[in-house]
């Protein structure tokens, strides 16, 4: 049998992998070498997930700044100091699209890993995808509202 975490060969009666220490669950162990998890797919899923979480934070920040600029302008009264919030909205919209593409790719990698290696789809992947969708629609809505006010 092979470890589903690192792919090294292990004894059939092993409680954990001698190479990486991963606990062995009999129903999740792959029986042949051809079914071993490809670390590159799992690694790509993790990398895309980390990048998309960072982009989600950036989109959230940009949307908050774009929403708050008109309020600050009203308080200060000088529009020329702050400029327009349209620049922030355009950047937030672009990053929202990129984030949506990244999280979609992560979600696809997660589905591939589930089908090929019987690995569960992580709750982190699902929640990150849902957050990206929400931020994308928020960016579109705020952008449309601002264009209609011009």
Description:
With about 150 residues, this protein is mainly alpha-helical. The chain has two domains: about 1-35, no CATH class; about 35-150. It is built from four helices and no strands. The chain has helices at about 40-75, 80, 85-115, 125-150. α1 runs antiparallel to α3 (about 85-115) and α1 runs parallel beside α4. The longest helix is centred in the middle third of the chain and has 38 residues, at about 40-75. The protein is elongated, with a radius of gyration of 22 Å. The protein starts with about 40 loop residues before the first helix and ends with a helix. Mean pLDDT is about 75; it is low at about 25-35.
Key descriptive features of the protein:
single chain, 150 residues, mainly alpha
Give the helix tally: 4
- The fraction of residues assigned to DSSP E strands is under 5%
Overall pLDDT score? 75
Q: How far apart are the first and last residues' alpha carbons, in Å?
A: 65 Å
Query: Into which percent range does the helicity of residues fall?
Result: 55-70%
Tell me about the largest β-sheet: none
- The helix-strand sequence is HHHH
Unreliable residue runs: 27-33
Number of strands: 0
Topology:
Layout: H1 39-76, H2 79-82, H3 86-117, H4 123-149
Helix pairs in contact: 1-3, 1-4, 3-4
Summarize the structure.
This protein has 150 residues and is mostly helical. It is built from four helices and no strands. It is 67% helix and 0% strand.
């Amino acid at each position: 049998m092979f470890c589903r975490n690192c792919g090294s060969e292990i004894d059939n009666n092993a409680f954990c992998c001698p190479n990486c220490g991963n606990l062995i669950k009999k129903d999740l162990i792959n029986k042949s070498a051809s079914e071993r998890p490809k670390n590159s797919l799992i690694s790509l899923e993790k990398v895309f997930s980390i990048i998309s979480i960072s982009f989600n934070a950036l989109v959230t920040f940009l949307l908050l700044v774009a929403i708050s600029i008109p309020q600050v302008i009203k308080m200060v009264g000088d529009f020329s100091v702050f400029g327009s919030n349209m620049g922030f909205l355009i950047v937030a919209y672009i990053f929202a699209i990129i984030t949506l593409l990244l999280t979609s790719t992560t979600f696809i990698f997660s589905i591939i890993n589930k089908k090929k290696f019987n690995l569960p789809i992580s709750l982190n992947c699902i929640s990150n995808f849902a957050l990206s969708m929400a931020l994308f629609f928020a960016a579109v809505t705020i952008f449309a509202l601002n264009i209609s006010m011009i």
